[in-house]
Amino acid sequence: MSPSNRIAVTEPAAEDFEQLPFWYGLAGVDQKDYSAEIHGFTSALQDGYLGVAVGKPGRGNVETLLDLDQSRWYYARTSARVLRLNGEPIGMLIMGAHWRLWEMMKKRGAHLTGATIDGFPLGEVDFMIAAMAMAKLHVLAVHPDQHGRGHGRRLIREALKIGKADRLSMLYGQFRSDRPHLRKFYTAAGFTVLDPGEPMPLYMATGTEGDLLVVESTETIFWTTVP
Ligand SMILES: CC(C)(COP(=O)(O)OP(=O)(O)OC[C@H]1O[C@@H](n2cnc3c(N)ncnc32)[C@H](O)[C@@H]1OP(=O)(O)O)[C@@H](O)C(=O)NCCC(=O)NCCS
User: Fold this and answer.
1) Cα distance between residue 34 and residue 11, in whole Å
2) Domain N-acetyltransferase spans what residues (predicted)?
């Protein structure tokens, strides 16, 4: 590749989050108002807590979270990367905590044993560690002008690299079932792609039989273990 065609996976800048509606739109997600999310990412980046509890295996991620206000945990467990061609953004990757699991995490802790670690209920800490063993791919998108050139695969490699450094056991996501090319894309990338509407067992993460990530038949879940 010539020096004038330089590809790089970079950390995001605040203005990259202004483009979130575009990237979500490519993935077929059409939310009306993105302002809260853009504000959430921008604040997390500017205040220095975006992704700070990622990639510090052992007790590191948990200890980092416990030092932060709980309202910051979600973004502290979220990673964002921008794929740039000669400095221009051509792709976006966002992965990490999933609201539904994190809401479960909060509820679980409340009625378990009275024991605590650093003031947090023991059950909550257990479930936190479990929820941290898996990450959701929220955004993985490449600019339409750049499709079919291996950039999507490059972003998957980056996601797995982040997951490995974080010692995740599982990386998963979901796409609209009416987008069959994504089944090919994720299968080619080594993911297991479930049937439309098939729920994903969460036992691996939560340790509780019967815990399921349930989706409508209009949605399809894909997942892989992280090598
Ligand atoms: C999915 C997406 C990221 C793929 O990016 P890309 O850069 O075009 O993909 P790559 O060039 O890396 O393709 C890797 C492999 O995926 C498969 N693949 C990718 N696009 C495909 C398509 N449209 N149809 C069939 N297979 C496809 C092929 O097997 C390809 O390997 P090959 O080129 O050796 O045949 C891109 O299409 C995109 O941004 N789509 C819109 C956003 C989106 O839907 N994201 C996923 C939401 S969960």
Assistant:
1) 21
2) 52-209
What residue ranges define each of the domains in the chain, with the CATH number in brackets?
Answer: 7-97+132-167 (3.40.630.30), 169-227 (no CATH)
Residue of higher predicted confidence among 188 and 109 = 188
Residue 147 beta carbon below 6 angstroms from any ligand 1 atom: yes
User: φ, ψ for residue 69 (rounded to 5)?
Assistant: -60, 140
Predicted confidence at residue 112, as pLDDT, reads 45
Ligand 1 pocket check for 91: Cβ under 6 Å = no
Partners of 94 in beta bridges: 80, 139
Encode pLDDT of 81-117 as tens digits. 999 999 999 999 999 988 877 777 666 655 444 555 5
| Mutation pick for ligand 1 pocket among 29, 142, 157, 193 (CB with most ligand atoms within 8 Å) | 142
Look over the chain and give the mean of its residue pLDDT values, rounded to a whole number. 88
220: Cα within 13 Å, side-chain hemisphere? 19
Residue identifier of the C-alpha nearest atom 24 of ligand 1? 181
